[in-house]
Every structure is written in structure tokens, then in C-alpha cells.
Amino acid sequence: MVLHIYAVRHGQTYFNRYNRLQGWSNSPLTERGLADAERAGRKLEGVAFQAAYSSDTTRARATAERILDLNQASAPRPTLRTAMNFREQFYGYYEGQDMGLAWWAAGAPHGAPSYQGIVDEFGLGATRDFLKQADPFHDAEDDQEYWRRVEGGFRLLAQDGTLRDGDRVLLVWHGNSLLSMMHRFAGDGYDLSERPTNGSVTVFDYDTAAPFERSIEVVSYNQ
């Protein structure tokens, strides 16, 4: 069974606006964030979704509900299902902190005092491992912990008995998670120095029968 997943980054929040790390913590959508959700909804209003999922964070749920409200093609309207598996990575002690300061704390001991510096030198997975090391409580998710949780979310999709081969699924998700998927599964031709914008749509084909490492094919990014 192959599912066509339309993954939308939630609308802008106040933490996004203030350049603060926002994983499991929440801040409300800004006026611009509400407009992001509206724009995504208009873009997807003609797509017939057979299911709708989102992170259980309020910013993702609010974005998803607005997209479904505007959808003209899904009949009946899918019930939104939420799961903690689709949350953004957990930043632990650094939740809500200024991004520049947090990534300096994570990367400076390794000679890479910025998020992009860590990615360029060590790979995206190292951003999670280094942040967990820097966390005085070691609560932040490392790369292995993060992917174990996310893979559980995709298993929920694979086990959804209402879905059939070729169905379309709305998934409202998070920026760093979408970027992580691209780093793991995208081929050449994508500019991954560009983070997914709030309200953007990224499309994946998900082969539910394949091992996870070979289950995702990127169709489009950050549209």
C-alpha cells in the first residue's frame, strides 16, 4: 500500500516569530500564522483526503482544522487524528530558548557554534545528539530517540484500517521534522539550506510495506 502524504508545516507561532526553540512546548498562532493555515487550506482545497493526522500540539491541530474546514473535495470530511509521535523533536532544557544561544551551547564544544555549522560538519542527526549532550538534564531527544518516536507515527498510518492503496493523507507537522525527513530521504536537486516555511506543503509517497529506511519517496518540497 502506497499512501500519498501531504505534509504541511503549521502556521507561524509567537515562538517562531521570536526565534525560539519550540518542540513539545506551545505558543499560539500569530495573525500571520492564521493566514499561513488559510493559505495552505486554499492550496489544498481540491485534494480529496481519505484521512487527516497531525501532531498533538495546539499549533498543528489549529492549522489542520483550518485546512479541513476549507477543503472542498473530501467527502466525508476526515476526522482529525492526533498523535504525539508527530510532535517536533523535544529540545529538553532548551525548550523556549533563543535558537542562536541554544545551538551555540550544543555546537561550540565541537567547533561548530551554529545549527547550520553542525549540519555542515557533522550531519543533521548530530544537532540532536549534541543538544542532548549539552542539556544539563539530558532530557532533549537524541537522534535515535527522535526517529524511534517518528517511525511509530508512520506505523500508525500503515495500521489505519480505513486506508487503501493510493489514498491521500493530510499530515500537519513541524519544520525541523520535515527538514529531517528531507535530509534522510530526499535525493539530489533539493535546496535543504531552505527550511520549510510555515504553511508550506511537502509531498511524500509512503510505502507501508517497505522497511522504513526505504519507505519514503519525496515528490515535492516546501511548496
**Rg from C-alpha positions?**
17 Å
Low-confidence stretches: none
How would you state the average pLDDT, rounded?
Answer: 97
Number of strands: 6
Order of helices and strands: EHHEHEHHHHEHEE
Tally of contiguous helical segments: 8
Global geometry: globular
GO molecular function: fructose-2,6-bisphosphate 2-phosphatase activity
Protein name: Histidine phosphatase family protein
Organism: Bifidobacterium xylocopae
Keywords: Hydrolase
Could you characterize what this model shows?
The protein has 223 residues and is an alpha/beta fold. It has two domains: 160 residues, 3-Layer(aba) Sandwich (Rossmann fold), CATH 3.40.50; 49 residues, no CATH class. It has eight helices and six strands, in the order βααβαβααααβαββ. A six-stranded mixed β-sheet has the order 3-2-4-1-5-6. The two termini are 25 Å apart. The mean pLDDT is 97.
What are the defining features of this structure?
single chain; 223 residues; alpha/beta; Rossmann fold; 2 domains; six-stranded mixed beta sheet; 8 helices; 38% helix; globular
Q: In terms of topology, how is this protein built?
A:
Elements: E1 2-9, H1 14-17, H2 31-43, E2 51-55, H3 58-70, E3 80-83, H4 99-107, H5 115-122, H6 124-134, H7 143-158, E4 168-173, H8 175-185, E5 201-207, E6 216-220
Parallel strand pairs: 1-4, 2-3, 2-4
Antiparallel strand pairs: 1-5, 5-6
Helix pairs in contact: 2-3, 4-6, 5-6
